[in-house]
Amino acid sequence: LVPVGIIGTGKYVPDRILTNQDLEQMVDTNDEWIVTRTGMRERRLASPEQASSDLAYEAAVKAVQAAGISAEQLDLIVVATVTPDMSFPSTACLLQAKLGASKAAAFDLSAACSGFIYGLANASNFIATGVYKYALVIGAECLSKITDYTDRNTCILFGDGAGAVVLGQVPEGRGFKSFELGADGSGGNLLKVSAGGSRRPASAQTLDNKEHFIYMAGSEVFKFAVRIMGNAAEAALSKAGMTKTDIDLLVPHQANIRIIQAALNRLDLSEEKCMINLHKYGNVSAASIPIALAEAVEEGRVQESDRLVLVGFGGGLTWGASVIVW
Ligand code: ACO
């Protein structure tokens, strides 16, 4: 097998900022509650004209440039998203056209907030087996478009943005060392957008019932998240022949500071060894991990040979973790 790793990263967040103070004007909440319960202070919101493929494009251009290749060299584009531009064509196909990546196969992947890790696992195998040379994996979300800004249980959490990586061959000893993916469909009802699919097609009733917005059973998802983040990270480490003392940087899904702190406790890690940016961007679902990774790279927090653990969880329910030697 060819050793595969991340050879370029990029991120994009829209300019518009939604602060806790803005939210105080919209629902019965306050800055202190939001900060202590979630760690969040601001999120970015797409403009009415922007859709996920537009955010994905901006992040992708940076990642392709950082990888030192051109879009025409891409063999595969995988977009992980719960907010595609439309049901079909896929956001990946829309992006392929925008990028001029005429050679690339393209598809979307649905695994909610775990989608980026699922996408890495998927795309890296095409390269490891010699089928493809370069793959673009993206998490891109416009969660603001499916958020009910009258529901204080959810509207404080979510933001918009995109993170992208290019995968390619890396020197022996570096790159992806393991993946741990999982799902528990019996928890599907805890986190969902009920309508707009074949079960509940869009109708006046689904609109009235607000079934096109995110529904979340917050405390159940919280308990699941606290358990699964540690479990998934430890399983990925064990598959890589490593232990928690080997971790140089943890890049977790940015859902809630208390969920991240529980994972840090479980892994005996200090906050210095963890990338945290949820105070600036909130939870951006599939885009959270690649945005955090790209930001860690920008900030010089990732050096050659560092051992990274990416770990996330989300609707499905799903979870995923990966160990990478940078
Ligand atoms: N402002 C003020 N009060 C609030 C707010 C708010 N924004 N939201 C809820 N409350 C109230 C509740 O109504 C409740 O009041 P009550 O006791 O009178 O009923 C009280 O605060 C406590 O509510 P809890 O839900 O118990 O608060 P909790 O500490 O669990 O925090 C939270 C809620 C932040 C949502 C937490 O449960 C959480 O982070 N859950 C996981 C979320 C998550 O990770 N989701 C992943 C989604 S990713 C994806 O796939 C899109």
TrEMBL record:
<comment type="function">
    <text>Catalyzes the condensation reaction of fatty acid synthesis by the addition to an acyl acceptor of two carbons from malonyl-ACP. Catalyzes the first condensation reaction which initiates fatty acid synthesis and may therefore play a role in governing the total rate of fatty acid production. Possesses both acetoacetyl-ACP synthase and acetyl transacylase activities. Its substrate specificity determines the biosynthesis of branched-chain and/or straight-chain of fatty acids.</text>
</comment>
<keyword id="KW-0963">Cytoplasm</keyword>
<keyword id="KW-0012">Acyltransferase</keyword>
<dbReference type="Pfam" id="PF08545">
    <property type="entry name" value="ACP_syn_III"/>
</dbReference>
<dbReference type="GO" id="GO:0006633">
    <property type="term" value="P:fatty acid biosynthetic process"/>
</dbReference>
<feature type="active site">
    <location>
        <position position="113"/>
    </location>
</feature>
<dbReference type="InterPro" id="IPR016039">
    <property type="entry name" value="Thiolase-like"/>
</dbReference>
<keyword id="KW-0444">Lipid biosynthesis</keyword>
<keyword id="KW-0276">Fatty acid metabolism</keyword>
<comment type="similarity">
    <text>Belongs to the thiolase-like superfamily. FabH family.</text>
</comment>
<feature type="domain" description="Beta-ketoacyl-[acyl-carrier-protein] synthase III C-terminal">
    <location>
        <begin position="237"/>
        <end position="326"/>
    </location>
</feature>
<keyword id="KW-0275">Fatty acid biosynthesis</keyword>
<dbReference type="GO" id="GO:0005737">
    <property type="term" value="C:cytoplasm"/>
</dbReference>
<feature type="active site">
    <location>
        <position position="253"/>
    </location>
</feature>
<keyword id="KW-0808">Transferase</keyword>
<keyword id="KW-0511">Multifunctional enzyme</keyword>
<keyword id="KW-0443">Lipid metabolism</keyword>
<dbReference type="InterPro" id="IPR004655">
    <property type="entry name" value="FabH"/>
</dbReference>
<dbReference type="InterPro" id="IPR013751">
    <property type="entry name" value="ACP_syn_III_N"/>
</dbReference>
<dbReference type="GO" id="GO:0004315">
    <property type="term" value="F:3-oxoacyl-[acyl-carrier-protein] synthase activity"/>
</dbReference>
<feature type="domain" description="Beta-ketoacyl-[acyl-carrier-protein] synthase III N-terminal">
    <location>
        <begin position="107"/>
        <end position="185"/>
    </location>
</feature>
<dbReference type="GO" id="GO:0033818">
    <property type="term" value="F:beta-ketoacyl-acyl-carrier-protein synthase III activity"/>
</dbReference>
<comment type="pathway">
    <text>Lipid metabolism; fatty acid biosynthesis.</text>
</comment>
<feature type="active site">
    <location>
        <position position="283"/>
    </location>
</feature>
<protein>
    <recommendedName>
        <fullName>Beta-ketoacyl-[acyl-carrier-protein] synthase III</fullName>
        <ecNumber>2.3.1.180</ecNumber>
    </recommendedName>
</protein>
<dbReference type="Pfam" id="PF08541">
    <property type="entry name" value="ACP_syn_III_C"/>
</dbReference>
<feature type="region of interest" description="ACP-binding">
    <location>
        <begin position="254"/>
        <end position="258"/>
    </location>
</feature>
<dbReference type="InterPro" id="IPR013747">
    <property type="entry name" value="ACP_syn_III_C"/>
</dbReference>
<comment type="subunit">
    <text>Homodimer.</text>
</comment>
